[in-house]
Each structure stands twice: as structure tokens, then as C-alpha cells.
Specification:
The complex is a heterotrimer of chains A (261), B (344) and C (575). Chain A is an all-alpha fold and 261 residues long. Helices cover 49% and strands 2% of the residues of chain A. In chain A, β1 and β2 form a beta hairpin. In chain A, α3 crosses α6 and α5 crosses α9. The radius of gyration of chain A is 25 Å and the shape is extended. The relative contact order of chain A is 0.10. Chain B has 3 domains: 74 residues, no CATH class; 35 residues; 142 residues, 3-layer Sandwich (Rieske Iron-sulfur Protein), CATH 2.102.10. Chain B has a 4-stranded antiparallel sheet with strand order 2-3-4-5. In chain B, a hairpin with a 5-residue loop joins β10 and β11. Chain B starts with a helix and ends in a 17-residue tail after the last strand. Chain C is 62% helix and 6% strand. Chain C folds into 3 domains: 305 residues, Cytochrome Bc1 Complex, Chain C, CATH 1.20.810; 79 residues, no CATH class; 35 residues, no CATH class. With 575 residues, chain C is mainly α. Classes of the chains: A mainly alpha (261), B alpha+beta (344), C mainly alpha (575). Chains B and C meet through α1, α4, β1 and α8 of B and α5, α7, α8, β4 and α10 of C. β1 of chain B pairs antiparallel with β4 of chain C.
């Protein structure tokens, strides 16, 4: 301690203290903050619905109306189903924060139990798509070949061939899918959030949805050819050809032309 | 100037003594002094450079060995990770094998080879007058020997024959290269009255009741896979099926072409033919990802942004007695990009 | 090398081979002329070599690929290690590409080397071409070589486009669809052009085999022939050189081919191939298994061609659609003709004819073997920069959806911005570049007339402060004064002494007007008279007698006892 005290006036002391403080707060947050778990409920109790109603009134009714029938700021939630709530709240899109071309995913504000309660409440308002079971979204049970065939016809034009994301009009965009959970993928297809169209179970059957999930599950990992450069296609490849390829070669040319010492 | 002469002669390259004329332009000062390299002055430095060159060649040889070993030790395997390992190992081996030689050769040239500059004279590109005269002479002699002088008909015949002889080859090539040249095919697709709409790519027929508001279905004609050239037909026949609330539809391309808010449009962009596949559910816009042509579905697929001019042709649809969606007829205009005789 | 001892085995072998060949070919003459040919040394002269060596890399890797690729559109079913495509129907072309990538050892490496080499080939051509442009290396006698190089650029575009379309995947297939749409837009013969290219309807059965022949035979053959011609011209004309001490329009200063450039240029080939191999080893490119086999229905977000075609893509994206018109029942798709044919036509024609335009406008028909410093030709440099800016804006416009997702912007706003920038950008770039060039020239003049500021302040007894300037030595100065200041063309008067209007006056007047645009704004190089004048009233540069010697001695070069006499000698020395 003496050694530390002797250095308390060191120039670098404030920096060290700052780093320690950051580590402490970060560590505490990581340990104590609620995490989004993947478990989805299959049944809801009356208790869940009541708790969900409370959560709804506190967090959602401002925009969606006290009876979830919608206001100017938010659409009606009657009939959207538990799946929509699980997706929107589970990915942090809801409660919506900022105005912008579209509502983006952000850190999840509720625990999975709370999300289940909200979902139970909204589901009780009117029949709608329900949260899929674990088996329905298990990637190991899906066929990635069928998944790819369906994905490239129905999804790649917005989300890119491997789900890296893509542009829509007027600042909207289809997000990257690589870190989206299988359950949320299923729910998004089923409920068609924001600009995304609805892919009901007649258009893409639950098995076909699972095939697509199996395909996406394989994406975003190691590319056989090396670094995948974002999987964005020829534009990024061209950029790297100039930056790395020509950059190195012109650098080498300058070296060749320089007088040796 | 004379007051400065003593003190400033040294500072001026152009010393003016009264009476001398200055040159109009500066003159080339000639070569700069040659600066020897460390390796030219110090034997130790020279040896060090030599060792570096040898080391670089050694790296190259190691790279080659690494490639040869990796080729047998690490096959591509069956998953992306093993393929990547094989690619990286083989590639790095090859890269070092090559870079080693390259860097060695260049370092050798820079550090060890004679670095004194030399000059060579340039000669005017033009041949001198004597040679030119000689060239003209020999051409004249040749022309005289050829007996072509003043034989206009002969010249004309020769030129004509030489000009037209390639035509047989060109005709045979160009004539056959378009196969049947049946450009009328561009105006029709395989949709006919009663053809069922089926999902792309699995070919399931679609019931009207399954098409909910906000959904988009990618559609092919039923029976596409039985065609002789399925992709050729698909390239004209793909369709997008959507459902709107009928109150949202401001305008349609034809009376009764939709069914209870369900509308079908050609998926082939009228700009240059990409699939117009993006559907923005909330704005009811179809967006083509290639050049961002945007079509408003509520307004007869009119173009609202981008380089397309014409709306996407609408496919008239109805339901058959089992509730499946069917076409009423083919499209009422050619699908896809515009061409010269499109309206004829 | 001379030896007094008996020749070694190697020497005897070499001598024997040389003798054998010489007796049959007279090779001695060529060896004598070319082995020690002098080439000048500058890094910017290696840019063309990047293109040459990447082309050789393309040929080597390309031959490997042809051993495994099947150029056929016949349908087959894939069974192989890639799970997402197992059991899927696809063309033989696509299936063989998958097999080549996943099952042939080193196959993926060769494919990636081939594709990276293609991107670098085109990048090197563009860089090299602009080096030629900015240094005026296209002037007489090299105008023909400029045209050869320009043709190589176009052939390179064709080679690349045909090449990346060969795997028959969705991404390149959509590119072909766009090409078909552009062909259809050609007035009168468009539909026939489309049928000609595809052998009937799109996509047809003939396309991939035809592209294969174009890609491995027709275009490479033409490229090889033209490269041969291109290099022949370089040897015939001798390489240009940058101005400098000892270098003139009548000599070439540098190093001999053997051994210096055999080592440097030969070594550079290994570097280029090595860097491309490094990229092929570590950076994935064109993963066709992610796009899937071609089908006219799917399309991916981020649908772009390879970078060198992006200028066309951008032009197509920027053009508003209202431009399509119907005349007498016939459709004239100006919304495609303008961006795909007229805009590139203008840009490329401008590039191709520039040497001839400049020669016409300057009336200069001397041979030029000394390169220009870009700042000394403000109009040319500004023109080149504005062409580059126009191309670059089109390239960015072609990537507008990726810009939108990366920077969270509206793709519609980006498109509108680029529509304006396409016209305003080059104009502004021209103006800025020209001003920068003139400014740099003025700086050069300043430096020559007044020397380097040493930062040493000296105070005279009279109370005056001056900063000591160190004059440039002859070598530093030469590079800044050696160029010609080109003036606008002077033409003969409109009417001769008797008032008769001269024939051809109109054309001359046009020529003079353009010449004024080129050269009215100019900064001319310092002449000896101007330098003398500057020194005569540059008393603030004067120092007390003793100091002056010391100062300048230190400045001109260490260890020279009588440096001022060296300076005079340098001027008197003839080159």
C-alpha cells in the first residue's frame, strides 16, 4: 500500500483509476443485468396475462393505446399474436425509442419472463400467430438445401444472399441475420415486422421456415476462401483489390525505385 | 551589381559581368554526383546484404516445401473450416515461394548490383531522307513491275473481290447465331387462361384464401418444370402475388384483373430485366434491387422512382372452382425491358 | 568475365548453347543490342508491369481452371460437400465450379488467384493509363501506343465480364440479364442483337459456351497480340524519362536491362504473383455457392458487377426513367441508351482522342521523350482529374445501396445527390485542380527566384532584420525550370495583305480558341534573366561578405572547397 500511496500523485494515476472504475462498473453490469434467454413459453397462465397487462400499461399504452387498439403513434395490437410481441420486444425493437425511417433493434429492455407475460397479454386480446416451439425452430432438423432455395427466392433480395443485410428505399434497410436467434427468425417470417412482408404458414410452411433457419444457421461463419470481407459482394472485393492489392504493389514499386542506402 | 560581386558571387550561379549576355533558358547541369551505397564502402554491409538475399531465397524454398506438405496433409475436406485451412495453407506456401524470389531478386539488384547510371543516345524516330527516298524507290519499282499502272478496271475488280469475300463466313456465322430469330416470342409468355399460380420454386398451387393482406408470394405458372426450356419460360413468366385491402387500391391496369384485393404483377423489371423482388409491405412499393426502380402497387404499379419508365405489367387473375388462383389470360403487353417494336 | 584459367563446365555449356543458337538464328546481334539496353528508373514506370504480370498470372491460373471447368448449360444435380446445394439442380458450369472450389486441391486457391488477378489487372491498367496521361507520355511518337493501350483497356473489360459470368451463378446471371436489357434497348436491331448474343431467348443454352470461347481464346489472343505490339513500341521508342540533371530529350539515362532490370522487373513479376497469391490465400472472393445457380427469379441485395463495370452500373442507376419515348409506335429507350451507351461513349472517346486534341491545339509536332510534371500542364491535369472524378462518382453511384446500409442513409437521397454531383463534381474538380497546378507552379518560381527559407534571421547593424535564403543549387533548380511554357497558338491573320479571306481561317480560329482555353492561364518557367533580376533587387538576401561565403558553402554541398566555381562550371557544362 505504501508503494501505491507513494505514487498517488503520479500523472498516470487518474487514468489507472478511470480504467479500474470502468472495469468495476462494466463487470457489475455484466453480472447483474438481465440477459435475454432463449426459452419460449408454450402455455400462459392468467397470472401471466395480468402481469403482462401491467407491463403493457406502463410501457406500451402510450403509443398503442390503453386497450391496445392503436393510436396515431402506434398500430393496433389486437390479433398480432404472441409471436409478434416475442419478436419485437425480444429483439429490443420495442419499446420504440427514436424516430427514424424504421425502428431498429437495440438492447433488450425486459427479461424473457416479462416478454412472455406481455406476449400472453397481447395474445389474449385476439387470436394471432403464437410463439414457435423449440422443435419448430431447431436448425439441426431443417434441410439447408431447401432452405437456401427458398431463401434466395423469398429473402435474399432484401437480406442479401447469405443474410448480411441490404438497403430498402428511403433509409430503411433489411438487417443482418447472423446473430438473430432461430425463434426470432421464425417469428419475423410469420408476422412480417415493419416493411417485411408476411410469410404465413401457407406460403412458407413451418417445416420450410425451419429449413430457412437451418440455412441461416450455417451463414456468417468461416468462409472457405478466407476472410469473407463482409460477404457484401463485388463492391467490397473491388475496394480491397485497390487498397490491399494495388496498395501493396505500388508500395513495392516505390521501394524498387528508391535508391538503396 | 558590382557592389555585390565580391560578397555574392558565391550565392549566384549566374554571374553577370557587364557585357555578357544571359542565355535565354537555363542549361542542364549534367549528372549529379554519384553517392556510393553502404555496401559499396563497407565489406561487412555488403556481406550482410548478400546474406539477406540468400535468406530470402531460402524463405522461398521453405514456402514451396510448405505447399507440398500441405497439399498432402490437409485436403479440403467436407466443411468450410477444413476447406479454409487447405486454402490458406496452400496459398501462403505459394505466396512465400513467390515473394521470396521477388524480394530476393530486387534486394540483390538494389544492394549488390552495380548502381552507376548510364546514358544512351536517342535517335530521331523518323527515317532519314535517304532511307525514305530509297523506300519510295522500291515501292515505285514494285508497282511498275506489277503492271497495275493505269488498269482501272483491274484495280476495281481486285478491290471488290477482296472486299466481299468475307461475306460468306460472316453470313453463315451471323445467320445461324440467333438460332430461330423468332423475336415474336418476346411478346408472349406461357400464361394462358386457366393456368394455376404456383409457388416458386416448389410449385405448389396457391389458394386465394391463403393470400393474406401484407403477404407476398413468388409465383411461377403451374407446369413450368415440364417445359422444354424451363428457365427461358421462367425468365418471362415469374410473377409477384400480393394482397391489398381493396380500399387501398387507387388504380388498376385493367377492369376485374385483381381478385378481392389480390393482385399479380410481372416480376421482370421494365428497366433492364432484373427480378423486382423487394416488397415493402407498409408503403406498398415494389423495389428492384439492381437500379432501385420503385413501383407503387396501389397505383397500377406506376414508377415512382428510378430509371424504369413503364409500370410492371399486371397479370389478370381470378379463382377456379376449387378456390385456386388462376390466370385469366396471358399478360396484355410484353413483359420485361422495352424494345424497339414492343408496341407493334 | 575474363578468366585466365581454363573455362569451367558451366561456361563451356553456355558457350556451346550460344554458338548452336547463333549459328541458326544470328542471335548475337540481338543480344548485343538489347542485353545492355538502358531503361530509366522510376517507381511509376512499374505500373504497366503490374498489369503485364497480373495478366501472366491470369493466364497461368486460367489454364489450371480450364482443366476442371465445364462450359455447358446442360442441367445436372449436384452431390458434394456443400450441404446447402446438395441435391439441387444446376448447370454443369456451376456444378464444375463447385467441384473445382471444394474438391480439387488448390482449386479454390487458383479460382481466387484468378479473380483477384483480374481485379488488379484492371486497376493497374487504369492507374498506368492515368500515369501516362498526367505525364504526357502519349505525345509524339507514342500516340499509336496510347491507342493500343486504350484498346487493351476495353479488351480487359470484356475479358473480365465474360470471365465472371462463366460460373453461371445468380449474381453474374443478373448481370447478363442487364446486358440483355441494354441490348434490347438498341434502336431497330435491339431484339436481333439480344437473340444474337444469347442464341435466342434469354437465357438460352448457348451463352456459357460462347462466353467461354470469347474468354479463353478470342479476347486473350487479342490481348496478347496487342501487349506484344505495346511492348514492341516501348522498345522501339525507348522508354520516356522524367526530367532531371543529365537527362534530355536526346538521351535515356538509367540502368542496363541485364542484369538490373532482369532482376528488378523479373523480381517484380514474382512480387505481383506473390501478392495476388497472398490475397487468394486469405481473402474470399466471388463465393458463387452463396449466390446459387442461375435462375431468373432470385436476386440478392447488393447486386453489382465487378468494380471495373461499376461505372456502367452507376450510370444506369442515376438516369431518370422519364426519358423513354415512343415515336410512331416505336419505343426509344433513352433511359438506357444515354447511361449505357452515350455517357460511357463520351467518357471513353474523350480519353482516347485526347492526345490528338492536345497535339492539334498546341501545334506541337516535335518528339517528346521527357515527361511532364503534371503541375506544368494545368489544363491536361485538370481534365484528367475531372474525368477520374466523373468515373468515380459513377462507381459510387453503382454502390449506392451499400453506401445506404453502411452509413444509414436513404438510397433515394444518395441517388439524387449523385445525379447533381455527376455534373457539378467534375466541373469543380477541374477548377480546383487547375488552381492547384498553377499555385504549385508559382511556388516553384518563388523557390527558384528566392531560394529556401532557412529560418535564420539576421539583424544588421542598421536595425534591419532579414531572413537568410539559401539559393537552390543547379540540380534542384533544373527540375523546376526545364519545362516549356506553352502559349496559346498564334495563327495567321484572317485576311492576307490584299484583304482576301484566307481559306481554313475558321478552323484555325476554333483551334486558337481551344488553345486559349488550354493555355491562357499559365505560369512560365523562370529564365536566367529573371533570376538575375531577382538577385539584383533582392538585397534582403545579401549578407555581410564573410558570412555569405560561409552560408553558401554550407548550403551547396559539404566538402567542396571552391563551390562557387563548381556552380559556374555546372552552367557552362554542355549536355
Amino acid at each position: 500500500m505504501k508503494a501505491l500511496a507513494a505514487r498517488r500523485h503520479d500523472r498516470r494515476a487518474p487514468i489507472v483509476l478511470l480504467l479500474l472504475a470502468l472495469l468495476l462498473t462494466g463487470g457489475l453490469y455484466a453480472a447483474l443485468a438481465p440477459s435475454a434467454s432463449a426459452a419460449a413459453p408454450t402455455t400462459a397462465s392468467a397470472d401471466d396475462i395480468a402481469k403482462g397487462k401491467q407491463l403493457f400499461e406502463a410501457n406500451c399504452s402510450t403509443c398503442h393505446g390503453p386497450s391496445a387498439a392503436g393510436t396515431g403513434s402506434g398500430p393496433s395490437l389486437i390479433g398480432v399474436g404472441a409471436a409478434a410481441v416475442d419478436f419485437q420486444v425480444g429483439t429490443g425493437r420495442m419499446p420504440a425509442a427514436m424516430d427514424g425511417p424504421q425502428i431498429e433493434a437495440k438492447p433488450v429492455q425486459f427479461s424473457q419472463d416479462q416478454i412472455n407475460q406481455l406476449a400472453a397479454f397481447v395474445a389474449s386480446l385476439g387470436p394471432g400467430p403464437s410463439v414457435p416451439t423449440e422443435e419448430q425452430v431447431d436448425p439441426s432438423k431443417g434441410d439447408p438445401a431447401t432452405g437456401m432455395a427458398l431463401f434466395r427466392t423469398n429473402c435474399a433480395m432484401c437480406h442479401n444472399a447469405v443474410g448480411a443485410g441490404g438497403a430498402l428505399s428511403r433509409g430503411k434497410f433489411a438487417p443482418n441475420l447472423w446473430s438473430t436467434s432461430p425463434t426470432h427468425l421464425f417469428e419475423a417470417m410469420l408476422t412480417g415486422p415493419q416493411s417485411m412482408p408476411v410469410f404465413n404458414n401457407a406460403n412458407l410452411t413451418p417445416d420450410e421456415k425451419r429449413d430457412i433457419i437451418a440455412f441461416i444457421d450455417q451463414q456468417g461463419g468461416a468462409a472457405p476462401g478466407g476472410l469473407d470481407l463482409g460477404a457484401l459482394g463485388p463492391v467490397s472485393e473491388g475496394l480491397w483489390a485497390w487498397v490491399v492489392g494495388l496498395g501493396l504493389l505500388i508500395g513495392a514499386a516505390v521501394w524498387i525505385g528508391a535508391k538503396s542506402s | 551589381m558590382s557592389t555585390h560581386d565580391n560578397g555574392h558571387e558565391a550565392g549566384h550561379d549566374v554571374v553577370v559581368h557587364d557585357g555578357d549576355a544571359l542565355p535565354a533558358r537555363f542549361e542542364n547541369p549534367g549528372f549529379e554526383k554519384h553517392h556510393p551505397r553502404m555496401g559499396d564502402l563497407d565489406e561487412g554491409a555488403n556481406k550482410k546484404s548478400e546474406r539477406i538475399v540468400v535468406g530470402l531465397f531460402a524463405i522461398s524454398i521453405l514456402g514451396t516445401l510448405f505447399f507440398l506438405i500441405a497439399y498432402f496433409a490437409w485436403p479440403p475436406g467436407t466443411n468450410a473450416a477444413s476447406m479454409r485451412r487447405s486454402n490458406v495453407a496452400l496459398g501462403l506456401g505459394l505466396a512465400f515461394a513467390l515473394l521470396g524470389i521477388g524480394v530476393a531478386a530486387i534486394h540483390w539488384a538494389k544492394a549488390l548490383m552495380n548502381d552507376h547510371e548510364k546514358a544512351e543516345e536517342r535517335h530521331e524516330q523518323r527515317s532519314d531522307d535517304e532511307t525514305r527516298a530509297g523506300a519510295i524507290e522500291v515501292l515505285k519499282d514494285g508497282a511498275a513491275d506489277s503492271a497495275i499502272g493505269r488498269r482501272g478496271v483491274l484495280k476495281g475488280a481486285m478491290i471488290t473481290a477482296l472486299a466481299v469475300f468475307p461475306l460468306p463466313i460472316v453470313l453463315a456465322l451471323v445467320g445461324n447465331i440467333g438460332e430461330d430469330w423468332n423475336i415474336g416470342q418476346l411478346k408472349h409468355t406461357m400464361w394462358k387462361k386457366g393456368t394455376r399460380l404456383a409457388t416458386d420454386p416448389l410449385g405448389r398451387p396457391v389458394r386465394a384464401a391463403d393470400v393474406t393482406i401484407g403477404s407476398v408470394w413468388h409465383i411461377i405458372p403451374e407446369g413450368l418444370e415440364k417445359q422444354e426450356h424451363p428457365l427461358d419460360e421462367k425468365a418471362k413468366a415469374v410473377v409477384l402475388l400480393l394482397r391489398l385491402d381493396p380500399r387501398d387500391i387507387k388504380r388498376e391496369q385493367g377492369e376485374g384483373w385483381s381478385y378481392d384485393g389480390i393482385m399479380a404483377f410481372s416480376k421482370i423489371c421494365t428497366h433492364v430485366g432484373c427480378p423486382v423482388a423487394l416488397y415493402e409491405q407498409q408503403t406498398h412499393h415494389l423495389l428492384c434491387p439492381c437500379h432501385q426502380s420503385t413501383f407503387d402497387i396501389t397505383d397500377g404499379a406506376k414508377v415512382v422512382f428510378g430509371p424504369a419508365k413503364r409500370p410492371l405489367p399486371q397479370l389478370p387473375i381470378t379463382v377456379d372452382d376449387e378456390g385456386y388462383l388462376v390466370a385469366q389470360s396471358d399478360f396484355h403487353e410484353p413483359v420485361g425491358p422495352s424494345f424497339w417494336e414492343r408496341l407493334k | 568475365m575474363s578468366t585466365t584459367a581454363a573455362p569451367t563446365r558451366t561456361e563451356r555449356l553456355a558457350a556451346g548453347t550460344a554458338d548452336y543458337l547463333d549459328q541458326r538464328t544470328g542471335l548475337g546481334a540481338a543480344v548485343k543490342t538489347f542485353a545492355r539496353k538502358i531503361f530509366p528508373d522510376h517507381w511509376s514506370f512499374l505500373l504497366g508491369e503490374i498489369a503485364l504480370y497480373s495478366f501472366i498470372t491470369l493466364i497461368i491460373s486460367g489454364i489450371f481452371l480450364t482443366m476442371f471447368f465445364v462450359p455447358s448449360m446442360n442441367e445436372t444435380v449436384y452431390h458434394g460437400p456443400w450441404a446447402s446445394l446438395d441435391g439441387v439442380q444446376m448447370s454443369e458450369a456451376f456444378a464444375s465450379t463447385l467441384r473445382l472450389s471444394f474438391e480439387v486441391r488448390g482449386g479454390l486457391l487458383m479460382r481466387q488467384i484468378h479473380h483477384w488477378a483480374a481485379l488488379i489487372f484492371m486497376a493497374a491498367i487504369v492507374t498506368h493509363m492515368f500515369r501516362i496521361f498526367f505525364t504526357g507520355a502519349f505525345r509524339k511518337p507514342r500516340e499509336l501506343n496510347w491507342l493500343v493501350g486504350f484498346t487493351l483497356l476495353i479488351l480487359g473489360l470484356l475479358a473480365g465480364f465474360s470471365g465472371y459470368s462463366l460460373p453461371d451463378d445468380v449474381l453474374s446471371g443478373n448481370g447478363l440479364r442487364i446486358a440483355d436489357g441494354v441490348a434490347l434497348a438498341v434502336p431497330i436491331i435491339g431484339t436481333y442483337a439480344s437473340y444474337l448474343l444469347f442464341g435466342g431467348q434469354f437465357p438460352g443454352q448457348d451463352l456459357i459456351p460462347r462466353l467461354f470461347t470469347v474468354h479463353i481464346l478470342v479476347v486473350p489472343g487479342l490481348i496478347l497480340a496487342l501487349i506484344g505490339l505495346h511492348l514492341f513500341f516501348v522498345v522501339l521508342h525507348k522508354h520516356t524519362q522524367y526530367p532531371g540533371s543529365g537527362r534530355s530529350n536526346k538521351n535515356v539515362v538509367g540502368y542496363p536491362l541485364f542484369p538490373i532490370y532482369v532482376a528488378k522487373a523479373g523480381g517484380y513479376f514474382f512480387l505481383v504473383f506473390g501478392v495476388i497469391a497472398l490475397m487468394g490465400a486469405t481473402m474470399a472472393i466471388n463465393p458463387v455457392w452463396n449466390y446459387g445457380p442461375f435462375d431468373p427469379s432470385p436476386v440478392s441485395a447488393g447486386a453489382q458487377p465487378d468494380w471495373y463495370m461499376l461505372f456502367l452500373e452507376g450510370a444506369l442507376r442515376l438516369m431518370p426513367g422519364q426519358a423513354e419515348v415512343v415515336i410512331g409506335g416505336f419505343t426509344l429507350s433513352l433511359n438506357i441508351i444515354v447511361p449505357a451507351m452515350i455517357v460511357p461513349g463520351l467518357l471513353f472517346t474523350g480519353l482516347a482522342i485526347y492526345p490528338f486534341l492536345e497535339a492539334w491545339v498546341t501545334g506541337d509536332n516535335r518528339e517528346h521523350h521527357l515527361l511532364d510534371r503534371p503541375r506544368n500542364r494545368p489544363f491536361r491535369t485538370a481534365f484528367g482529374v475531372s474525368l477520374l472524378v466523373a468515373f468515380f462518382i459513377l462507381v459510387l453511384a453503382g454502390s449506392n445501396d451499400l453506401i445506404a446500409t453502411h452509413f444509414h442513409l436513404s438510397i433515394n437521397d444518395i441517388t439524387w445527390v449523385f445525379r447533381f454531383l455527376l455534373f457539378l463534381g467534375p466541373w469543380f474538380a477541374f477548377w480546383v485542380t487547375k488552381r492547384v497546378c498553377l499555385g504549385l507552379q508559382r511556388k516553384d518560381r518563388e523557390l527558384v527566384l528566392h531560394g529556401h527559407e532557412t529560418g535564420r534571421i539576421v539583424r544588421f547593424a542598421s536595425g534591419e532584420y532579414i531572413e537568410v535564403h539559401k539559393p537552390l543549387d543547379a540540380h534542384e533548380r533544373w527540375i523546376r525550370v526545364q519545362h516549356d511554357g506553352i502559349r496559346p497558338l498564334e495563327i495567321e491573320p484572317a485576311e492576307d495583305s490584299r484583304g482576301v479571306r484566307r481559306k481554313g481561317y475558321r478552323i484555325d480560329r476554333v483551334r486558337q480558341r481551344i488553345s486559349k482555353v488550354f493555355y491562357e492561364d499559365r505560369v512560365e518557367p523562370v529564365t536566367p534573366a529573371e533570376l538575375a533580376a531577382a538577385h539584383s533587387h533582392g538585397e534582403h538576401d545579401a549578407l555581410a561578405a564573410g558570412d555569405a561565403h560561409a552560408e553558401v558553402t554550407a548550403g551547396v554541398g559539404a566538402g567542396h572547397a571552391s563551390d562557387h566555381r563548381d556552380e559556374l562550371a555546372a552552367d557552362a557544362r554542355d549536355h
